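The material for today's practical consists of a large collection of protein records. Getting from the letters to the tokens is the skill we practise here. To make this concrete, we reproduce a full record directly below:
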Amino acid sequence: MQQLHDYQAPRSAFLPVCKEDLSPGSELDIIFVTGDAYVDHPSFGTALLARILENQGYRVGIIAQPDWRSTRDFTRLGRPRLAFFVTAGNMDSMVANYTVAGKPRKDDAYSPGGLGGRRPDRATLVYCTRIREAFKQTDIVIGGIEASLRRFAHYDYWSNSLRRSMLIDSKADLLVYGMAERSVVEIARQLSAGRRAGELQHIPGTLWRCRAEDAQSIQVIADTWPSLIQDDAAGLPEARLLPRKIQNLPGWEDLKDPRLGKNHYSQSFLAQHRNTDALNADILTEAYGPWLVVQNPPALPLSASEFDALYTLPFTRTFHPDYLEAGGVPAIEEVRFSLVSSRGCFGGCSFCALTFHQGRRIQARSGDSLVREAELLTRLPGFKGYIHDVGGPTANFRRPACEKQRRVGVCKDRQCLHPRLCNQLVVDHQDYLGVLRRLRSLEGIKKVFIRSGIRFDYLLGDSNGEFLTELCAHHVSGKLKVAPEHISPRALAAMGKPRPEVFQQFAHAFKNTNQRLGKNQFMVPYFISSHPGTTLADALELALYFRDQGGTPEQVQDFYPTPGTLATCMYYTGIDPRTGREIYVSRSYQEKAMQRALLQFRDPKNHGKVRQALETLGRTDLIGQGKQCLVPGAFKSPPGKPGADQKRHQNPKSRHRSSENRRNTPGGRGRSNHRTSK
């Protein structure tokens, strides 16, 4: 991090975090409990929602990263008048705590000093349990990315099992999904009027529960839905407000059925995937014995003026002073001098959960709002003239994909970009270009970078090449991050990504544009190994592409099955819910390791696994010294001596330690790497 004194702000400018921050005898209305450290910046969900509620006149406090081993930290601000709002933080706690290989992470960018271990596994559940122990009759509302993506029954990769809706397992009173600005304000208003959180059944963007015999109340809500959201729709005059249908998802018993459960799960996920738009989503129900979990349609998107207003709230834009001694909170570095231009994404990537959390409809801030925030950044301590990013989930999405989305919402059964650009898609970068030009002209700004992902197939759909030219001329810091993810048509189809020739076309255009501008700039492509639908043969196809094109990918990520994604549904069921057909899934550690090794075949430490993969595929012709070969043949050492690969990468000290472990543990089995996890 930069000099810590650049991050200092007076304690009085933050929301209360302990009793010493409260006036004598004062009572808080709402207390947020979060798995993240308290960073008072609009990119941190807890801070954003807390400031919104403060702006509405509520007294709000924050308990950040409480010690979950007892109730003591959960009582530090007393009992709230209205409710506890609980979140695991900006990341799912299991993703924050473990790598895809199941190893505990040592680092956590959302914790003081960047050290891991400050949040429990499945933090939302643990926090709710402790709050119930401390305050038995207080309302609890859960939300954030962890609760949002686990709102229905879901596959849990870490336990390799199905888990119930988090609303059921947490014993919370209400679950908020999505971005939540509208929802939390309405919840607070209803609670302040004397309602209990468990009674709230009409609020968009929430899940609630009722007994099966009370299901008639769901039909009333479906019939009267237009009147329930008409006030929020005032900023969306083109939107059509219609009654909603009720769709009953397969229940918990159906999902657990040994023979048909995975088919039921695939059907359930597809129904959820089709109902993520505020203008046309059905009401969804899921049965748990005598109980029903009910999902209301999403909250309406924010208008530009409402979106702009969020960034006028009095954020300190730094971490709480309690963290200075630990070295601050590293996550602030990525966003401190960046601008959020938009939210939502109609890209439709199978491995991404944005559809489930932010939705496919784009919401964008006005150019005036971005300029005002940029001017504010120039006055922050430590600003050196560089805006690190102007973007969102996809930087060059600044408007809804088509006019139909504005009126009736996104298509339920068609994607905007896959398998090819929809003929109704409106590709237009002019608004984004106008914003970037205004930002570049501001006094005190030397450079404006774009570090969010660029959707290159959308860019190529723009008949005006102006955006690519200005991108290369002004907004690339030497390397442009792009995400082709693979080169095999079969793998790309499973991922929901454009065909390989589209990436080749963009790579050619990017190279030619830089040559024309006299710039020496490169692309940094991102690739995924072991994604559902990707075979070992597909991984070899990608390796051969790297061989022929030259270079080695800098960014390769193993597929991580996280809740809320189409790809995770494929991973669990072995079914592509879009087609109902079986799909290949790489499950064994051995094959995953071989796929990854093929993608980075030039690294000597991978040669053994690459040879194993090539032998498995019957492609030993690619082993040897020829130009077409991926790896050299294995060095055959004299009997009793280690081979070249083994000798080169084995540390004598580790060999000694391993032998000591074998001698000193029962049965000769070393226990130095033993660990337990939930």
User: Anything to note?
Assistant: DSSP finds 26 helices and 24 strands in the chain. The chain has a mean pLDDT of 92. The first strand starts at residue 30 and ends at 34.
